[in-house]
C-alpha cells in the first residue's frame, strides 16, 4: 500500500492507499460519517461506513474534532458530485495530533478575528487557493525571465537610498549610520543591467505608507527587471508578454484553485490577448473629463483608485498609461525629448478595479540632470555617487519596471483585498502574527 497525497488520487482509483490529513469539517448519521479532509495539496471527502469498519473506527470517526491530524487508510473512488472529483472510502484511522476547540469554525467570523488567527486561517480553502496561485506566479516569473535571458540579481534590503521618495521610508540604524528598508531594488538593478545586460530582482520592499486601502501593504514583494540597451517601447512589449505569460500559466496550472475561488477563466483568457492598449497621460485626462464622472480631474495630478478603475474598465483589459507629469514621478525617469513637463514612463493598470500593477520607465542617462533631480527630491547627493557612476562609465539607454506581486495576485485571483495575497500581511495596524 502506498502513502500518497490527495492531489494524486486520480492515479489510484480503486486502489488502497494511506494519506496524512487534517479534518476540516464533518457530518455523520447513525450509519455513515463524511469527513472533509485536506493535506495541503487538495481537499476531498472521506467516507466511513459503519458496516465496513470496526466499531472503534466508526466511533473514532464520529468523535474527531476539527483540525485533528491523522493517517487514513482506504480506497480511492471517483466522486463526480464534488469539485475535486475523488473521495476515499476509509477503512482505518490513526490519529496523529489531537485538536480541541479550533478557533476558526465553519460559521462566519469577522475579518479582525481571522487576521488575528492568520497562522491558522491559512489552512482554509480560499487561502490555500490564493497561496497556490501565488506560488505559480513566482514559478512562472523565474521561468519567463530565464527564457528571456535575464539573470536574477538580488538587491539589498538594508539601503542608504530612497528611490521612490523620502516620505515613505522605514528608518533603522546601521551601527552608527542611518539606514532604510528597501523601497525598491531598482537602482541596484540598474547597476546590474550595466554589468550583465538583462537582470531582475525579486524581493520584499517596504513602504511606510499611511494608506489604509484594499491595495496597500506596508511590506510587499516586487519583481524588478532592468534592461540595458533598451528604450521604453521595447520594455512595454516585455511587460505585456510577461503579464500574459503569468495569466496563461495560472490558467494552465491552477484550474483547481481557480475553481475554488470561482474565478471566471474566460475573463482571464481575455488578458492573454496582446497587445494591451497604450494611452498617454494626456489622453487619460481627456477620457476622464469626457466621462462626466470626474468633474474635478486636473492635469498634473496623480490618479486615485476611481480614476484607475475607470480607465482600465474603459478598455476592459490591462492598459498602459504613458508619460505622466514629471512632478509626480521619481527623480530617475528620462525626461521626454520634446516636452519638459512629462517623463518617459508607464503604469500598467489592471481591469476590474485592481489599479496599478506595474510602474516602470526609461531611465535618465544624463549625470548632470540626475544630480539636479536628486537634490530637488531632497536626497543627499553623496549617497548617490555610485548611481551617478553608472552614467559616467559607459552609460547606455536602459529601461525597467516593477511588478507588485500582491497587486497582481489580488487581480488574478479576484480577491477583494490585498491582505489575502500574502501569507502574513503587514498592514497599517497589524504586525501580528
Ligand atoms: O510604482 P512603484 O512605486 O515603482 C517602483 O518602485 C519602481 N522603482 C519600479 C521599477 O521601475 N523598478 O511600485 C511598483 C509596483 C506598483 O505598480 C504596485 O504594483 C506595487 O509596486 N506597489 C505596492 N503594492 C502593495 N502595496 C504597496 N504599498 C505598494 N506600492 C507599490
Ligand atoms: Mg507607481
List the helices and strands and how they pair.
Elements: E1 2-3, E2 16-28, E3 32-38, E4 43-49, H1 55-63, E5 69-78, E6 86-97, H2 111-116, H3 118-121, H4 125-147, E7 151-152, E8 158-159, E9 171-174, E10 177-181, H5 186-196, E11 198-206, E12 219-228, H6 232-253, H7 255-261, H8 265-270, E13 278-280, H9 281-291, H10 305-315, E14 319-322, E15 345-350, E16 355-362, H11 367-376, H12 385-392, E17 398-404, H13 405-413
Parallel strand pairs: 1-2, 4-6, 7-11, 13-14
Antiparallel strand pairs: 2-3, 2-5, 3-4, 5-6, 8-10, 9-10, 11-12, 12-17, 14-15, 15-16, 16-17
Residues 163-164, 184, 186, 207, 209, 216-217, 220, 222, 224, 356-360, 400-402, 404, 406-407 line the site of 4-amino-1,4-dioxobutan-2-aminium adenosine-5'-monophosphate.
GO biological process, one term: asparaginyl-tRNA aminoacylation
Protein name: Asparagine--tRNA ligase
Pfam families: tRNA-synt_2, tRNA_anti-codon
How many H/I helices?
13
Strand order of the largest sheet: 7-11-12-17-16-15-14-13
* CATH topology term of the largest domain: BirA Bifunctional Protein, domain 2
Distance between the termini: 40 Å
Mean pLDDT: 97
Query: What portion of the residues fall into strands of 2 or more residues?
Result: 25-35%
